[in-house]
Give the backbone structure.
Amino acid sequence: MSGIHFKDVIKRFDHHIVVDHLNLKINQGDILGLLGPNGAGKSTCIHMLCGLLPIDYGDITINDISVKQHVLEAKKLIGVVPQHIALYDHLSAEENVTFFAKLYGLKGNQLKENVANALQFVRLYDLRHEKITRFSEGQKRRLNIACAVAHNPAYLIMDEPTVCIDPQSRNHILESVKELNKQGTTVIYISHYIEEIKVLCNQIAILDHGQLIANGTKKELLSQLDLHEKVYIQVSSLMNSAAKEELENHMQVSNVLWENQQLEITLQSAQLILQDILFLLSKYEISVQSLHIEKVDLETLFLNLTSGTSHQ
Amino acid sequence: MRHIALISKNELLQVFRSWPLALIIFALPFMLIFIISMTSSVNIMIYEEGYVETKSTMQSTHSGAEPTIASTTNENTLSINEINVEQVTALSPLQYYTASTLVTCILFQGLGAAISIIDERKDKTFTRLRMLPMKTSTILTGKLVGNALICLIQSLWIIMISTLLFQVDWGQHIEILTITCLLTICISMLIALHVTFLFQSVKVIYSFFYTFIIVMTFISGGMIKDLSNQLEFIGSYTVHHWAFKSLLQGMLDYHILEAMYHIIPLMGTAMMLYIIALIGYRKVDFYK
Ligand SMILES: Nc1ncnc2c1ncn2[C@@H]1O[C@H](COP(=O)(O)OP(=O)(O)OP(=O)(O)O)[C@@H](O)[C@H]1O
Ligand SMILES: [Mg+2]
């Protein structure tokens, strides 16, 4: 069975559980977006996956190779973009990529070709001979990515790869990751930019306090959860209790807030009952000045699931 | 093997591409020897006594007594070639202090190795290397081999410069010189490894090495020749002492078997440090 499989994984740091019975499967060919607030345990999962940290309980398999038992074999299949920049200052951009690619066993023409491709991947080919001490933070971040892709890994793990990177290069990187994925690379993508996850990933997992609280395609996640949309209406009159009560009694409406001239209605789906609301308001001779519908998207979903909190 | 070679090569590049480090490695021993050569006229005064002793011992060996190791317990000032009694050479102060400089420089390169390991752990590149398909011990070995090579290059440099520019005679027995240098380099690297197992702060490591090496050089007589008896006694059980005396024996053209008296303790120390490193390695948490 190919793919990456977290099987009931537990990790503790001094009796403090950081990853809690994690069961997660990433199929070959997928791009998994891993979301979670700071300190949720995302990086810890990755560190266990690439053998940096021992797994306290359970196991992780990559293409059925157990990380616990055959860590070196398992590590050959992956490329990791670490969360922190990890490059050698005394080497040029090209030398950095070459060094890591060589450690993965690349040689000769293959090495040269892959290094050039990796540098093009992050748009640093023109700066390949520059010492990286002259690089900006964003350029270093891009090189950090290049060092992880040069050996064409079957599984690419990216831990917040696009922090500090300008929008042009970010788009380019996202496109390139998609391209890599088309060529068969499976990707685990950790990010706090929900937009990125939205455009890139076909599978999403949300981690909070080390527990997997949601997992599935974007559509599945949104439908699984009984989430509501919000309609904000700017009205002409102050609170009208009769109108408010009637609104609240509507089957689909779950909550109504009326402050000054601002009406906030929480409901299942605005599309279905917008007509009803407008009709009701006109019945009470309340005119609508402006109207805004807040759709449920990944961000609201994420904030909802993780209660919008971030750990220390 | 390939991994070790790549990492050690990277280590060499790291040092030789940074001019302050390269300067320290190449210029500092040169300057030390130069200063010594400038002040050696003063030292000769100290040595006159030794030289006289040399002469008297020479006479005593000539008068029938079997030349034994016991008759040369005062090796650093006495100078008798046991193999060829006819050929009597004395150690010049320049030889004495150059040998001491060589040992000190090798031991100090351990500081370089330790700092390099700690820096790498701080820079996150160590973590990145650990994500690659190789063992942590391979990474550490690679780094130590790299630093050992730097150390070897520096030793060759010291020997070359001192021979060519200051006419320091390192003796006929290249093997004593080679074995002593290699063993001292191993010990220096292993000490570096232990230090990084114990401490994570660059400052602490600096203080440790400075104190450790300066004290060791001092009590083994590498700074001031005549020390009090107690100090000399303690000093005769240090790495610096064994390496230093073994080098002096090489300079005095002793037979390698006699130099073994100092080389064997060096070997023992290296072995012991290696075994402790193997045990200690399992207890270190590299995830910090
Ligand atoms: N070496 C360590 N010792 C003790 N606790 C640790 C260690 N490393 C991480 N932790 C704890 O583990 C938890 C998870 O950390 P982790 O780095 O996995 O979070 P994360 O989800 O990657 O967060 P971020 O989004 O900030 O990168 C945190 O609460 C952190 O304090
Ligand atoms: Mg993280």
